[in-house]
Protein backbone atom coordinates (compact mmCIF):
# COMPACT_ATOMS: atom_id res chain seq x y z
CA UNK A 1 0.00 0.00 0.00
CA UNK A 2 1.25 3.47 -0.85
CA UNK A 3 1.34 5.85 2.07
CA UNK A 4 -0.30 9.13 1.09
CA UNK A 5 -0.14 12.62 2.57
CA UNK A 6 -2.34 15.50 1.42
CA UNK A 7 -1.41 19.07 2.30
CA UNK A 8 -4.47 21.29 1.99
CA UNK A 9 -7.25 18.77 2.65
CA UNK A 10 -10.05 21.30 3.16
CA UNK A 11 -10.02 22.93 -0.29
CA UNK A 12 -12.01 21.76 -3.29
CA UNK A 13 -9.13 19.90 -4.90
CA UNK A 14 -8.17 18.42 -1.51
CA UNK A 15 -11.61 16.99 -0.85
CA UNK A 16 -11.75 15.72 -4.45
CA UNK A 17 -8.46 13.91 -3.85
CA UNK A 18 -10.01 12.38 -0.73
CA UNK A 19 -13.12 11.25 -2.66
CA UNK A 20 -10.98 9.54 -5.29
CA UNK A 21 -8.26 8.14 -3.05
CA UNK A 22 -10.79 6.74 -0.54
CA UNK A 23 -11.85 4.37 -3.35
CA UNK A 24 -8.31 3.53 -4.47
CA UNK A 25 -7.37 -0.07 -3.56
CA UNK A 26 -3.60 0.50 -3.39
CA UNK A 27 -3.30 3.49 -1.05
CA UNK A 28 -3.48 4.24 2.63
CA UNK A 29 -4.11 7.88 3.49
CA UNK A 30 -1.82 8.72 6.42
CA UNK A 31 -2.15 12.49 6.81
CA UNK A 32 -4.57 15.20 5.68
CA UNK A 33 -3.59 18.69 6.72
CA UNK A 34 -5.41 21.87 7.52
CA UNK A 35 -4.14 24.66 9.73
CA UNK A 36 -7.64 25.98 10.41
CA UNK A 37 -9.35 22.62 11.05
CA UNK A 38 -6.52 20.70 12.76
CA UNK A 39 -8.02 18.18 15.19
CA UNK A 40 -11.41 17.97 13.46
CA UNK A 41 -12.70 14.69 11.99
CA UNK A 42 -12.54 14.83 8.20
CA UNK A 43 -16.06 13.36 7.99
CA UNK A 44 -17.39 16.11 10.24
CA UNK A 45 -16.34 18.78 7.75
CA UNK A 46 -17.18 16.62 4.73
CA UNK A 47 -20.16 14.33 5.51
CA UNK A 48 -19.78 12.88 2.00
CA UNK A 49 -16.70 11.05 3.33
CA UNK A 50 -18.39 9.57 6.43
CA UNK A 51 -17.57 5.86 6.66
CA UNK A 52 -14.77 6.28 4.10
CA UNK A 53 -12.15 8.42 5.86
CA UNK A 54 -11.60 7.95 9.59
CA UNK A 55 -8.74 10.47 9.98
CA UNK A 56 -8.68 13.92 11.58
CA UNK A 57 -7.11 16.93 9.94
CA UNK A 58 -3.64 17.60 11.26
CA UNK A 59 -1.45 20.68 11.29
CA UNK A 60 1.05 20.53 8.39
CA UNK A 61 3.96 20.99 10.82
CA UNK A 62 2.99 17.83 12.76
CA UNK A 63 1.83 15.62 9.90
CA UNK A 64 4.89 13.32 9.49
CA UNK A 65 4.79 13.90 5.76
CA UNK A 66 8.35 12.60 5.45
CA UNK A 67 7.06 9.10 6.28
CA UNK A 68 4.82 9.07 3.20
CA UNK A 69 5.59 7.57 -0.21
CA UNK A 70 3.88 10.44 -2.00
CA UNK A 71 2.58 13.84 -0.87
CA UNK A 72 -0.01 15.83 -2.79
CA UNK A 73 0.04 19.61 -2.35
CA UNK A 74 -3.51 20.94 -2.85
CA UNK A 75 -2.45 24.34 -1.58
CA UNK A 76 -2.29 27.88 -2.95
CA UNK A 77 0.67 28.81 -5.16
CA UNK A 78 3.95 29.30 -3.32
CA UNK A 79 3.41 26.76 -0.49
CA UNK A 80 4.77 23.52 -1.97
CA UNK A 81 8.05 25.06 -3.10
CA UNK A 82 8.99 25.74 0.53
CA UNK A 83 8.59 22.09 1.61
CA UNK A 84 9.45 20.10 -1.49
CA UNK A 85 13.28 20.12 -1.12
CA UNK A 86 13.27 18.49 2.34
CA UNK A 87 10.56 15.99 1.38
CA UNK A 88 12.48 14.95 -1.74
CA UNK A 89 15.60 14.53 0.44
CA UNK A 90 13.56 12.20 2.64
CA UNK A 91 12.71 10.08 -0.41
CA UNK A 92 9.10 11.29 -0.74
CA UNK A 93 7.67 11.80 -4.24
CA UNK A 94 5.59 14.92 -4.79
CA UNK A 95 2.56 15.90 -6.88
CA UNK A 96 1.92 19.64 -6.71
CA UNK A 97 -1.55 20.70 -7.83
CA UNK A 98 -0.51 24.36 -7.66
CA UNK A 99 1.69 26.15 -10.15
CA UNK A 100 5.05 26.21 -8.33
CA UNK A 101 6.82 23.87 -10.75
CA UNK A 102 4.84 24.29 -13.97
CA UNK A 103 6.79 27.07 -15.72
CA UNK A 104 10.36 26.26 -16.71
CA UNK A 105 11.49 29.87 -17.13
CA UNK A 106 11.92 31.10 -13.55
CA UNK A 107 11.78 34.78 -14.53
CA UNK A 108 8.46 34.20 -16.32
CA UNK A 109 7.09 32.33 -13.30
CA UNK A 110 8.20 35.04 -10.87
CA UNK A 111 6.63 37.73 -13.04
CA UNK A 112 3.24 36.02 -13.33
CA UNK A 113 3.08 34.72 -9.75
CA UNK A 114 4.53 37.81 -8.10
CA UNK A 115 6.99 36.05 -5.78
CA UNK A 116 10.55 34.74 -5.73
CA UNK A 117 10.92 31.03 -6.33
CA UNK A 118 12.13 29.20 -3.21
CA UNK A 119 13.83 26.29 -5.05
CA UNK A 120 14.46 27.25 -8.68
CA UNK A 121 17.01 24.44 -8.96
CA UNK A 122 14.20 21.86 -8.82
CA UNK A 123 12.05 23.39 -11.56
CA UNK A 124 14.08 21.83 -14.39
CA UNK A 125 13.68 18.39 -12.82
CA UNK A 126 9.91 18.66 -12.32
CA UNK A 127 7.84 16.83 -14.94
CA UNK A 128 4.71 18.53 -16.26
CA UNK A 129 1.99 16.05 -15.41
CA UNK A 130 -0.04 15.87 -18.60
CA UNK A 131 0.12 12.13 -19.33
CA UNK A 132 -1.04 12.61 -22.92
CA UNK A 133 2.32 14.33 -23.56
CA UNK A 134 4.72 13.17 -20.86
CA UNK A 135 3.61 9.66 -19.89
CA UNK A 136 7.07 8.07 -19.95
CA UNK A 137 8.75 10.88 -18.02
CA UNK A 138 5.99 10.85 -15.39
CA UNK A 139 6.72 7.18 -14.65
CA UNK A 140 10.18 7.97 -13.27
CA UNK A 141 9.57 11.46 -11.88
CA UNK A 142 10.16 12.44 -8.26
CA UNK A 143 8.32 15.73 -8.66
CA UNK A 144 5.18 16.33 -10.73
CA UNK A 145 3.83 19.74 -11.68
CA UNK A 146 0.15 18.89 -12.09
CA UNK A 147 -1.33 21.06 -14.87
CA UNK A 148 -3.84 23.83 -14.26
CA UNK A 149 -7.52 23.35 -15.06
CA UNK A 150 -7.79 25.64 -18.08
CA UNK A 151 -4.39 24.47 -19.41
CA UNK A 152 -5.57 20.84 -19.38
CA UNK A 153 -8.72 21.51 -21.42
CA UNK A 154 -7.01 23.95 -23.80
CA UNK A 155 -3.87 21.90 -24.43
CA UNK A 156 -5.72 18.62 -24.97
CA UNK A 157 -8.01 20.47 -27.38
CA UNK A 158 -5.20 22.04 -29.40
CA UNK A 159 -2.54 19.30 -29.23
CA UNK A 160 -3.33 17.30 -32.39
CA UNK A 161 -3.61 20.50 -34.43
CA UNK A 162 -0.36 22.09 -33.28
CA UNK A 163 1.54 18.80 -33.59
CA UNK A 164 0.25 18.39 -37.15
CA UNK A 165 1.67 21.68 -38.42
CA UNK A 166 -1.59 22.25 -40.28
CA UNK A 167 -2.57 25.51 -38.55
CA UNK A 168 -1.37 29.10 -38.18
CA UNK A 169 0.56 28.81 -34.90
CA UNK A 170 0.80 32.56 -34.41
CA UNK A 171 -2.90 33.23 -33.97
CA UNK A 172 -4.50 30.52 -31.86
CA UNK A 173 -7.55 31.61 -29.85
CA UNK A 174 -8.88 29.93 -26.70
CA UNK A 175 -12.20 31.13 -25.36
CA UNK A 176 -12.68 29.22 -22.12
CA UNK A 177 -15.35 29.10 -19.41
CA UNK A 178 -15.05 27.76 -15.88
CA UNK A 179 -17.41 26.94 -13.05
CA UNK A 180 -16.92 28.78 -9.76
CA UNK A 181 -15.20 25.88 -7.94
CA UNK A 182 -12.18 26.76 -10.10
CA UNK A 183 -11.60 29.68 -7.75
CA UNK A 184 -11.24 27.46 -4.67
CA UNK A 185 -13.14 27.33 -1.40
CA UNK A 186 -12.10 30.67 0.04
CA UNK A 187 -14.84 33.23 0.63
CA UNK A 188 -14.49 35.84 -2.10
CA UNK A 189 -17.01 38.39 -3.30
CA UNK A 190 -17.04 37.29 -6.95
CA UNK A 191 -17.94 33.70 -6.06
CA UNK A 192 -20.85 34.58 -3.75
CA UNK A 193 -24.15 33.10 -4.97
CA UNK A 194 -25.65 36.53 -5.52
CA UNK A 195 -22.67 37.60 -7.61
CA UNK A 196 -21.95 34.46 -9.65
CA UNK A 197 -25.44 33.00 -10.19
CA UNK A 198 -27.48 34.32 -13.11
CA UNK A 199 -24.38 36.10 -14.40
CA UNK A 200 -21.64 35.54 -16.98
CA UNK A 201 -18.45 37.48 -17.48
CA UNK A 202 -14.93 37.39 -18.86
CA UNK A 203 -11.92 38.17 -16.70
CA UNK A 204 -8.15 38.38 -17.09
CA UNK A 205 -8.37 39.34 -20.77
CA UNK A 206 -5.13 41.30 -20.61
CA UNK A 207 -3.31 38.32 -19.15
CA UNK A 208 -4.13 35.30 -16.99
CA UNK A 209 -1.57 33.12 -15.18
CA UNK A 210 -2.54 30.13 -17.25
CA UNK A 211 -1.46 31.87 -20.46
CA UNK A 212 2.30 31.26 -20.05
CA UNK A 213 1.61 27.66 -18.99
CA UNK A 214 -0.49 26.93 -22.08
CA UNK A 215 1.98 28.76 -24.33
CA UNK A 216 4.87 26.72 -22.94
CA UNK A 217 3.09 23.39 -23.45
CA UNK A 218 1.79 24.09 -26.94
CA UNK A 219 5.11 25.60 -28.07
CA UNK A 220 6.88 22.42 -26.99
CA UNK A 221 4.30 20.29 -28.81
CA UNK A 222 4.56 22.44 -31.96
CA UNK A 223 8.38 22.68 -31.70
CA UNK A 224 7.81 26.36 -32.47
CA UNK A 225 6.76 29.33 -30.32
CA UNK A 226 3.00 29.75 -30.55
CA UNK A 227 0.89 32.90 -30.31
CA UNK A 228 -2.26 32.55 -28.22
CA UNK A 229 -5.13 34.79 -27.21
CA UNK A 230 -6.66 33.25 -24.08
CA UNK A 231 -9.85 34.65 -22.60
CA UNK A 232 -11.26 32.97 -19.47
CA UNK A 233 -14.86 33.41 -18.31
CA UNK A 234 -16.72 32.69 -15.09
CA UNK A 235 -20.00 30.83 -15.58
CA UNK A 236 -22.73 30.11 -13.02
CA UNK A 237 -21.82 26.41 -12.79
CA UNK A 238 -20.21 24.65 -9.84
CA UNK A 239 -17.90 22.34 -11.83
CA UNK A 240 -16.77 22.25 -15.41
CA UNK A 241 -14.59 23.82 -18.05
CA UNK A 242 -15.73 24.42 -21.60
CA UNK A 243 -13.03 25.60 -24.01
CA UNK A 244 -13.91 26.77 -27.51
CA UNK A 245 -10.72 26.83 -29.54
CA UNK A 246 -10.10 28.47 -32.91
CA UNK A 247 -7.24 27.95 -35.37
CA UNK A 248 -6.76 28.92 -38.99
CA UNK A 249 -6.06 25.94 -41.23
CA UNK A 250 -3.12 26.32 -43.60
CA UNK A 251 -3.58 23.05 -45.41
CA UNK A 252 -6.15 20.35 -45.98
CA UNK A 253 -6.55 18.03 -43.03
CA UNK A 254 -9.16 15.49 -41.95
CA UNK A 255 -9.76 16.89 -38.48
CA UNK A 256 -11.81 13.95 -37.26
CA UNK A 257 -9.16 11.40 -38.30
CA UNK A 258 -6.37 13.58 -36.89
CA UNK A 259 -8.01 13.70 -33.46
CA UNK A 260 -9.17 10.09 -33.42
CA UNK A 261 -5.67 8.86 -34.32
CA UNK A 262 -3.92 11.13 -31.79
CA UNK A 263 -6.09 9.97 -28.92
CA UNK A 264 -6.87 6.38 -29.92
CA UNK A 265 -4.88 4.97 -26.99
CA UNK A 266 -5.73 7.63 -24.44
CA UNK A 267 -8.03 6.27 -21.73
CA UNK A 268 -9.29 9.69 -20.66
CA UNK A 269 -9.70 11.58 -23.93
CA UNK A 270 -12.90 10.89 -25.82
CA UNK A 271 -13.16 12.21 -29.38
CA UNK A 272 -16.86 12.55 -30.16
CA UNK A 273 -18.40 11.98 -33.59
CA UNK A 274 -17.83 14.88 -35.99
CA UNK A 275 -20.12 17.84 -35.41
CA UNK A 276 -20.91 16.98 -31.75
CA UNK A 277 -21.38 19.56 -29.03
CA UNK A 278 -19.88 18.18 -25.79
CA UNK A 279 -21.47 19.41 -22.57
CA UNK A 280 -19.74 19.97 -19.24
CA UNK A 281 -22.31 17.72 -17.56
CA UNK A 282 -21.15 14.84 -19.78
CA UNK A 283 -17.85 14.80 -17.83
CA UNK A 284 -18.97 15.96 -14.37
CA UNK A 285 -17.22 13.98 -11.61
CA UNK A 286 -15.12 12.03 -14.14
CA UNK A 287 -11.52 12.14 -15.32
CA UNK A 288 -12.61 12.52 -18.94
CA UNK A 289 -11.87 15.20 -21.49
CA UNK A 290 -14.42 15.07 -24.29
CA UNK A 291 -13.53 16.77 -27.55
CA UNK A 292 -15.41 17.53 -30.76
CA UNK A 293 -14.00 19.03 -33.95
CA UNK A 294 -15.80 21.38 -36.31
CA UNK A 295 -15.06 23.21 -39.54
CA UNK A 296 -17.95 25.68 -39.88
CA UNK A 297 -19.26 26.08 -43.43
CA UNK A 298 -16.25 24.09 -44.71
CA UNK A 299 -14.12 27.21 -44.28
CA UNK A 300 -10.50 27.58 -43.18
CA UNK A 301 -11.21 27.86 -39.44
CA UNK A 302 -11.02 24.80 -37.22
CA UNK A 303 -13.23 25.05 -34.13
CA UNK A 304 -12.49 22.57 -31.36
CA UNK A 305 -14.75 22.09 -28.34
CA UNK A 306 -13.11 20.59 -25.25
CA UNK A 307 -14.81 19.91 -21.91
CA UNK A 308 -13.46 18.68 -18.59
CA UNK A 309 -14.36 18.69 -14.92
CA UNK A 310 -11.94 21.25 -13.46
CA UNK A 311 -11.66 19.33 -10.19
CA UNK A 312 -11.04 15.90 -11.77
CA UNK A 313 -9.15 15.86 -15.11
CA UNK A 314 -8.35 19.51 -14.33
CA UNK A 315 -6.86 18.72 -10.90
CA UNK A 316 -7.34 15.75 -8.52
CA UNK A 317 -8.18 13.02 -11.05
CA UNK A 318 -5.19 13.91 -13.19
CA UNK A 319 -3.04 13.97 -10.02
CA UNK A 320 -4.12 10.39 -9.22
CA UNK A 321 -3.52 9.40 -12.87
CA UNK A 322 0.02 10.73 -12.41
CA UNK A 323 0.44 8.88 -9.11
CA UNK A 324 -0.67 5.62 -10.74
CA UNK A 325 1.93 6.11 -13.47
CA UNK A 326 4.70 7.04 -11.01
CA UNK A 327 4.18 3.90 -8.95
CA UNK A 328 3.67 1.41 -11.77
CA UNK A 329 -0.04 0.93 -11.06
CA UNK A 330 -2.68 0.61 -13.80
CA UNK A 331 -3.06 4.18 -15.08
CA UNK A 332 -6.85 4.19 -14.76
CA UNK A 333 -7.04 2.71 -11.23
CA UNK A 334 -9.74 4.47 -9.13
CA UNK A 335 -10.44 7.15 -11.74
CA UNK A 336 -12.90 5.46 -14.06
CA UNK A 337 -15.98 7.07 -12.49
CA UNK A 338 -18.92 7.46 -14.85
CA UNK A 339 -19.94 11.15 -14.99
CA UNK A 340 -22.89 12.23 -12.84
CA UNK A 341 -26.12 12.89 -14.70
CA UNK A 342 -28.20 14.97 -14.40
N1 LIG B 1 -10.12 24.62 -7.92
C1 LIG B 1 -9.71 24.13 -9.08
O1 LIG B 1 -10.53 23.87 -9.98
C2 LIG B 1 -8.26 23.89 -9.35
C3 LIG B 1 -7.90 23.19 -10.51
C4 LIG B 1 -6.54 22.96 -10.78
C5 LIG B 1 -5.58 23.41 -9.89
N2 LIG B 1 -5.96 24.10 -8.78
C6 LIG B 1 -4.89 24.56 -7.89
O2 LIG B 1 -4.87 23.66 -6.77
C7 LIG B 1 -4.50 24.35 -5.59
C8 LIG B 1 -5.60 24.14 -4.54
O3 LIG B 1 -6.80 24.68 -5.09
P1 LIG B 1 -8.19 24.65 -4.29
O4 LIG B 1 -9.19 25.21 -5.23
O5 LIG B 1 -8.41 23.30 -3.68
O6 LIG B 1 -7.85 25.73 -3.13
P2 LIG B 1 -8.64 26.08 -1.84
O7 LIG B 1 -10.05 25.56 -1.96
O8 LIG B 1 -8.44 27.53 -1.61
O9 LIG B 1 -7.87 25.25 -0.68
C9 LIG B 1 -6.58 25.55 -0.27
C10 LIG B 1 -6.11 24.51 0.78
O10 LIG B 1 -4.76 24.82 1.13
C11 LIG B 1 -4.63 24.95 2.57
N3 LIG B 1 -3.63 25.99 2.81
C12 LIG B 1 -3.74 27.32 2.55
N4 LIG B 1 -2.61 27.96 2.88
C13 LIG B 1 -1.76 27.02 3.36
C14 LIG B 1 -0.44 27.07 3.88
N5 LIG B 1 0.23 28.22 3.97
N6 LIG B 1 0.13 25.91 4.29
C15 LIG B 1 -0.54 24.73 4.22
N7 LIG B 1 -1.81 24.63 3.75
C16 LIG B 1 -2.41 25.76 3.34
C17 LIG B 1 -6.03 25.30 3.05
O11 LIG B 1 -6.24 24.82 4.38
P3 LIG B 1 -5.76 25.63 5.69
O12 LIG B 1 -5.76 27.10 5.34
O13 LIG B 1 -6.75 25.26 6.76
O14 LIG B 1 -4.38 25.09 6.01
C18 LIG B 1 -6.93 24.54 2.07
O15 LIG B 1 -7.10 23.21 2.53
C19 LIG B 1 -4.33 25.82 -5.98
O16 LIG B 1 -2.98 26.10 -6.18
C20 LIG B 1 -5.11 25.94 -7.29
O17 LIG B 1 -4.60 26.95 -8.14
C21 LIG B 1 -7.26 24.33 -8.48
Automatic annotation (TrEMBL):
Highest taxon of the lineage: Bacteria
Name of the molecule in the record: N-acetyl-gamma-glutamyl-phosphate reductase
GO biological process annotation, one example: L-arginine biosynthetic process
Similarity remark: Belongs to the NAGSA dehydrogenase family. Type 1 subfamily.
UniProt GO cellular component terms: cytoplasm
Location within or outside the cell: Cytoplasm
Segments forming domain Semialdehyde dehydrogenase NAD-binding: 3-141
Keywords tagged on the record: Amino-acid biosynthesis, Arginine biosynthesis, Cytoplasm, NADP, Oxidoreductase
PANTHER family associated with the record: N-ACETYL-GAMMA-GLUTAMYL-PHOSPHATE REDUCTASE, CHLOROPLASTIC-RELATED, N-ACETYL-GAMMA-GLUTAMYL-PHOSPHATE REDUCTASE, CHLOROPLASTIC-RELATED-RELATED
Active site: 149
Coiled-coil region list: none
Functional pathway: Amino-acid biosynthesis; L-arginine biosynthesis; N(2)-acetyl-L-ornithine from L-glutamate: step 3/4
